[in-house]
Every structure is written in structure tokens, then in C-alpha cells.
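User: Hey, quick favor. My workstation is busy. Could you predict this chain's structure for me?
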Amino acid sequence: MKDLRIIGLLITDRIKEAGRTQEALTKYAHVIKSRLGFHEVTEDVCSRIGVVILQLAGSREECARLEEELGKIGGLEIQRMVFTL
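Assistant: No problem, here it is.
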């Protein structure tokens, strides 16, 4: 069976954690099929909180390694969905 894996990342301090998060996402870019990121922006302020949604396309092991590396980053919450196709 094949899995459709989606993980959501809540970054509670983008200014502090964006660099480490980007490094991990770049390292595992080969398992990321789709990526959507957003945060609130106004003329006066850019939110410190950000959300990233990833659709993963690699093996279960590779996806687990990505999640493990992201889990080591402080200020990052991970939620996952797995659909069996």
C-alpha cells in the first residue's frame, strides 16, 4: 500500500527558528512534494508565528528522519496526517 503523508509545522518564533527550519527542509527537499507556508503580514507588523504544510513523497524512513530532525528544533510543533491509498 502507498501512503499520502502530510505534516503541518507551527513555528512559534519565525525570527529565531526560520533558519534552522529552512536548513532541515532543504536537506530533505527530495522527499517534499509540495510546500505551503504562510504568516500574517500587515503594513505595521510581520507575525512571529508561521505555519508550513508539507506533502511528503519519500519513503517512510526518509519522512521519519525529516520529522525527527524538525522535532529537534525548539519552538516548532509538528502535526501529521497519513492517508493509506
